[in-house]
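User: Here's a chain of 375 residues. Predict its fold as tokens.
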Amino acid sequence: MKRYILGAAAGAMALSATAFFLSGRDTATAPEPRHAAQSASITVNVVTPAPGTFDRAIAATGTVMPRDELIIGSDASGVRLVEVLAEVGTVVRKGQLLARADDSQLRTQLAQHEALVKQAEVELTQARANLERAEKLKDSGVYSIETYQTRKTAADAAAAKLELAIAQRRELEVKIGHTRVYAPAAGVISKKSATVGAVVQPGIEMFRMIREGELEWLAELPSHSISTVRPGTRARIALDDGNSVEGKVRIVAPTMDAATRNGLVHVTLPKDARLKSGAHARGEILMSNAQALALPEASVLARDGFPFVYVVGPDNVARLAKVETGARQRGYVEIVSGVTADSRVVSTGAGFVKDGDLVRVSPQSPRVADAGGRS
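Assistant: Prediction complete.
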């Protein structure tokens, strides 16, 4: 009996010890609520995506060229330039004198022909007076028919001689005019080959001028893209300083280059575009506008080649969210998918946040993204 009581007591003690051990193990391994004792690691600003207007565009590259480049020369022959009045970059008006050649010899010849014209006028006056007298006395028998005819012929010859002298004088005046080179239109001198002392010959280029200073961007597009472009479509061309200028499509070339299979789109540029003729420029043809959610560029980060943002939940925990982006313009990014219009996205301080961090939201955070930079 005693042995039985001792065995029962030992079994009870073993069960009690086992229960105590299991109770202690469960207590030690019980999960604690996450962030229960964690404090916010960083203060951030958050924004919610705002609706913005983004351009749908076709990217292109091309060359800046004059819309109309005029080649200026002279029809003078064998005269020497004595004065050149325009340089490259000179803005000129229509009819402005650009260069002058020596015309002293031509003017001497002109003076001689002036004298010949006066002599022919005197001879014509005398011949007509003789003819008039012969006509009055034609029926009296004083002058024979032969004499009358001779005087009439002399008058006609004198008239022809005068016309010839006047024509020769006019020819010399034209030659003297050719010694002056004038701007055929208003514009900017883009090239100068005229130099003082050079002998002018017909057909020799002396200046090149960009009419009205108008430049164009000749954008190259493949056939599948150029077919959608129409005159009047807006275009945006990038400048070297990071800014851009806008122009409009003037014409779409009707042919394609057989070697590159590209066609040209002529885009008219504003006069203050700060682009030079011959420069290579990149830009885009703006086909249409679309409404989309926009976030500041500072909010969108990249990891492994993919864009993502940090979205702050109701518990102020920042979670990494992969997003799909679209166009970028004026400091804002088009968000195609990944967040909604009421998502709280980390803006200032996004680069210091890690996935799962508890953050403190600054009370100065803007309610929505300022999409004022949209077009």
